[in-house]
Specification:
5-stranded parallel sheet; Rossmann fold; Alpha-Beta Plaits; single chain; flat
Length: 412
């Protein structure tokens, strides 16, 4: 059973608390417990485990920010709310290991808190490397990055970092010092850029140098950003969050450029890109063209929405029947192309016929009726010289399957 994630909200302003609680529950789907004093917060923290806390600095029984230390003692990451604009007090609070410090000025500030929590929850999926030869600064940086909910690896120099990157190719960000022994920040950046583009892995370089030529050199050699030491915690957090969000947006654009919008399968263009490697490596594979029988008639009779449901259901049946190394794409309205790898002729025929049977066995359930579905499959077991020739052969086999009345498998 999956545990519900909870947020502890501590504020004696009941109207504001209710507003924040509703936004957290409705927009983020998190459970919220509301406490109006330090004493109540202590009771809740004994009872539940919290993902984070949203805490007001001035409570009836803790007017001087005692709630911050109480939450940190229990290792509950905290976002601090306050009506105070005192700069010195703000600096003192930011020295503590809190996530952020938010002024309670209006609804925009509450929206900022919601956006911050949303960002933190997403950050948990990302790995970040902190690279610095100073153990003190490295540990400080590690703690700051962990406060943003990232998974963190802390290393002493660039050579160690490259070894960890080899073992964890899904690392999304490297925060490195410029001056280090063995392999410095510049050499590390160059090494990373031989394998990853700026759109795949973000590199931040930190340095106390005042030489503008150094920052320019690092940026020219592939650093995404350069941060001068010392820097403010708030600026650092904003830059990291903005950078990871940019990477996510690029990943999303890249993902959808390869996918059919309706089914989530690969689109025709990306299918051809993936198949180039199969031909270049002279792999053995089976190519099958699959078409939905009578699709145009069903589309005209039942409409676009039902037509889409038919395509989605059949795509899901095929997808759930194949292995991860197989390639499935939607070519156009009612046609799919499936490439099966690591199959004998008999096992491939058995699988393709099983897919055909599954489609025929599972009708599409609508509100007032059921629609019986079927597919025709044309397969080629010996790839031709080119991908286009192979697809043409599979299309020819598909035409034979349709000519036989549909709900058929024909092997060329």
């Amino acid at each position: 059973m999956v545990k519900e994630e909870r947020v502890l909200l501590v504020d004696d302003n009941k109207t504001l608390s209710k507003l924040v609680m509703l936004k957290v529950k409705n927009e983020l789907g998190l459970e919220v417990d509301m406490a109006y004093s330090l004493a109540e917060a202590e009771l809740f923290s004994h009872k539940y485990t919290y993902t984070l806390a949203i805490i007001d600095l001035n409570l009836p029984d803790a007017p001087n920010g005692e709630i911050v230390d109480a939450m940190l003692k229990k290792r509950i990451p905290s976002i601090v709310l306050t009506g105070s604009v005192d700069k010195e007090f703000r600096k003192a609070i930011l020295k503590k290991d809190i996530i952020d410090y938010v002024h309670k000025g209006g609804i925009d500030d509450i929206d900022y808190v919601i956006d911050t929590i949303r960002r933190l929850l997403k950050n948990r999926a990302h790995k970040v490397m902190v690279v610095d030869d100073s153990s003190i600064f490295r540990n400080q940086m590690k703690k700051m990055v962990e406060n943003l909910f990232f998974q963190v690896y802390a290393l002493a120099h660039g050579e160690e970092a490259m070894l960890i990157l080899e073992e964890n190719p899904d690392i999304k960000m490297i925060i490195t010092d410029y001056n280090m022994p063995v392999m410095d920040g510049l050499e590390l950046t160059k090494a990373v850029r031989k394998k990853y583009t700026k759109d795949q892995l973000c590199v931040f370089v930190l340095s106390s140098t005042e030489d503008s030529d150094v920052s320019a050199m690092l940026l020219k050699h592939g650093a995404n950003d350069f941060i001068n030491k010392p820097f403010s915690k708030e600026e650092f957090s904003c830059r990291l969050n903005n950078a990871i969000e940019a990477l996510e947006n690029i990943d999303m654009i890249t993902h959808y450029s390869k996918r059919d919008f309706l089914t989530g399968l690969y689109n025709r263009r990306h299918f051809y890109t993936m198949m180039e490697s199969c031909f270049s490596e002279e792999e053995e594979f089976v190519t099958a063209m699959i078409s939905i029988d009578n699709y145009r008639h069903l589309y005209a009779l039942h409409g676009e929405e039902t037509g889409d449901k038919i395509v989605i259901q059949i795509a899901d049946i095929i997808r759930s029947s194949i292995d991860y190394q197989d390639i499935l794409a939607r070519f156009e309205g009612d046609e799919f192309c499936l490439v099966l790898k690591n199959h004998t002729r008999d096992s491939a025929m058995e699988l393709l016929d099983l897919i055909r049977q599954k489609v025929a066995f599972v009708p599409l359930h609508l509100a007032e009726e059921e629609i019986l579905l079927s597919i025709s499959i044309g397969a080629v077991f010996h790839p031709e010289d080119t991908l286009n020739d192979t697809i043409d052969e599979a299309d020819s086999a598909l035409a034979q399957a349709k000519a036989a009345g549909g709900n058929n498998l024909y092997v060329q």
